[in-house]
Amino acid sequence: MRVPLNGNDEFVSDVNNVVNQINDEFIEFLRPKLKMEKVKVMLGDGTVTSSETFDPTEIRNLYSSFLKKLSEWIISDVSVSKTEDLHRLFFQISIIIDKFYLYGYFGIQYHSLAVYKVDKKVLEIQKELIKLDQESFERFSSLAIQGNEKIKEELKKYGYEKLDFEELFTLIFEDSLLMTRLEKIALKHENEFPDIAELNKKREKLLLELNEMIIHLYRITPVKIDYNRLIQGEEGIISYFDIEVIKNKKSGIRDPYINTKSIKSHTTNQIVNKLNEVIYTIRNSSH
Hints:
The protein has eight helices and nine strands. The chain folds into two domains: about 10-120 and about 215-285, no CATH class; about 120-210. The strands form two sheets. Strands 3, 4, 5, 6, 7, 8 and 9 form a seven-stranded antiparallel sheet that branches. Strands 1-2 form a two-stranded antiparallel sheet. Helix 3 packs across helix 5. The two termini are about 30 Å apart. It is elongated, with a radius of gyration of 32 Å. It is α+β, with helices and mostly antiparallel strands and about 290 residues long. It has helices at about 10-30, 55-70, 120-155, 165-175, 175-190, 195-210, 225-230, 265-285, and strands at about 35-40, 50-55, 75, 80-85, 85-95, 100-115, 215-220, 235-250, 255.
């Protein structure tokens, strides 16, 4: 069952209260590190503009500080998931108390935007790439024209120069020997243009240099979101808990339905105490 639980018994009231406190504490725990800082960046067209970002590394450090101090709970690694520009940075905790399994999820969801560093080298590389692309186009055009002429000459030897495209395609597809001969002619012709390969190498090198100039801006609205808003891709901070009954400890089978009215006071106290430890750990983790 997902907290907050429905009902008005002692277990529901106590668990809902402490989990709500955890959610509030977690938001305040992260909020100082989610303040957007102004930065200067360069867009793809070379325009320099002012934007804002926060540093996810700071959030990761907060997570690590919290997890190091949390005792007895089973903890996950800090994880990142990405779907296009939508990112999640999160961790999970769990614990077994009596016959109950408690699971907690804590994280943020935010957007990422790729831009360039403010550096004139970006424009220099882009100009060089345009120049190389133009040169490559001219060389490829020349190669194609000359190559087509050589293919035509070869086809003329066999009396195929008057075939239309479909007839020629069928012929080449059915005659493997002719296809092999034409491929050899084309490859030999390409080898007569080694400068094209060199142009490609230069282009790849420049693209790698340009890629190294890319930085990412991270955007988030530091508000509380629930699971549904998380799935819908909204920005924000999320923490939630699930509580299930362990039906079989050996197989690990669990039941999400809980009869909260049947839970004894000492079990309620145990669960609430472990959840209170989460609050204490959040408060005592360094900012």
